[in-house]
Specification:
Elements (H helix, E strand, L loop, with lengths): L11 H25 L8 H65 L5 H6 L4 H8 L7 H56 L4 H17 L13 H11 L18 H11 L8 H4 L4 E3 L10 E4 L5 E7 L2 E4 L8 E4 L7 E6 L2
Helix pairs in contact: 2-5, 4-5, 7-8
Length: 347
């Protein structure tokens, strides 16, 4: 009869090694999953950075919208002027026709309508005018009236053609406005959607940071630098009176602004008309290439696409309407997060 031996129990050290290895495997798997997680880190700095990027894109689209809006206003004025001119030309042409009609009536009473007048009322008045000078019975008054009518008719046709072209440009510009408005609103909505992924506590933390920046920007040590010009000083003073007013895209004051809305509004208060957009403002006045040469009241052009503008406030500070959620405030140029391109001095 064979012996029945009890199976050997695994040694405690071997069991411990297995347990340790399993725990290590679980830990490694957990760490790998953490490293593979594409979500931002726990303090949500990644979300904040992406929101700031979207706000920057919204600001860039806003300046394009502002440019289209300015173009629309200009075209609207031109269309209205042309329509007024067309109406005046038509009225003048009607008056000339009435004068010629009176001549025809008088001739009819005297024994028939002058052949020259008959020819004018035909389908080819231009052809008539080429022959009119050779007709014996045409009077100087009739010839002058007919020539005026021909000239007025050409002017009227040109004005109508030009007005139609401007109306087409206006329609295209309004479509562009819709597209730019949609782009701005899309970027802002995308940023808000991203913010909504945060917890209430995280959103409150970001809002508190923005509020601290807004409060800190209410006052600044501007030094005692002299202004670049008297008009620039007056514009800068007007902008200073708007500190604390909220940023709003497309706004030109007096109670909310975007970046170029603030600068154009402020110069308007000083009696100076400057273009509406930051890109257009970048090309007026005298260019100042060095930060060290700037004077308070000079415009500061920021970003490589020239999509941001503010006032140099002295002591390395900018006074501007920076972004959605912010207010008109002072800020150090070095910490604004936007590269300096050049300054503009408006004399």
């Amino acid at each position: 009869m064979g012996s029945h031996r009890r199976p050997k129990q695994p040694k405690r050290t071997y069991t411990t090694m297995l347990t340790t290895a399993a725990a290590a495997a679980v830990a490694f798997t957990t760490q790998s999953a953490a490293h593979a997680d594409p979500l931002p880190d726990p303090n949500k700095k990644g979300v904040k950075a992406e929101v700031d990027r979207l706000y920057e894109q919204a600001a860039q689209a806003t300046e394009k919208y502002n440019g289209a809006k300015e173009k629309e206003s200009k075209l609207q004025r031109e269309v209205e002027d042309l329509q007024d001119a067309v109406a005046r030309s038509q009225e003048e042409l009607n008056t000339l026709r009435e004068d010629l009609g009176l001549l025809a009536s008088a001739q009819y009473r005297d024994g028939g309508v002058d052949p020259s007048v008959q020819l004018f009322f035909s389908s080819d008045p231009d052809g008539y005018l080429e022959k009119a000078a050779t007709l014996d019975r045409i009077s100087g008054r009739q010839l002058g009236t007919l020539q005026q009518m021909q000239s007025q008719q050409r002017t009227l046709e040109q004005q109508r053609e030009e007005a139609q072209g401007k109306l087409k440009d206006l329609e295209d510009t309004r479509e562009e406005l819709k597209d730019k408005k949609k782009e701005v609103q899309g970027k802002l909505a995308e940023a808000q959607k991203l913010l909504n992924t945060l917890t209430a506590q995280e959103r409150a933390k970001i809002a508190a940071e923005d509020q601290r920046a807004n409060r800190a920007g209410q006052q600044a040590d501007l030094g005692d630098e002299a202004s670049g010009s008297q008009r620039a000083a007056a514009a800068f003073q007007a902008a200073q009176s708007r500190v604390g007013m909220p940023y709003a895209w497309g706004a030109t004051g007096p109670n909310s602004f975007d970046c170029s809305g603030l600068t154009s509004w402020a110069f308007n208060q000083a009696g100076v008309s400057i273009p509406r957009t930051s890109q257009a403002q970048a090309n007026i006045g005298t260019r100042i290439n060095s930060l060290g040469d700037l004077k308070p009241g000079d415009l500061i052009i920021m970003r490589s696409d020239l999509s941001h503008v503010g006032f140099y406030a002295g002591n390395g500070q900018i006074l501007h309407a920076p972004k959605p959620g912010a207010v008109v405030r002072y800020e150090a140029i070095s910490t604004s997060g936007m590269p300096f391109m050049w300054g503009v001095r408006v004399s």
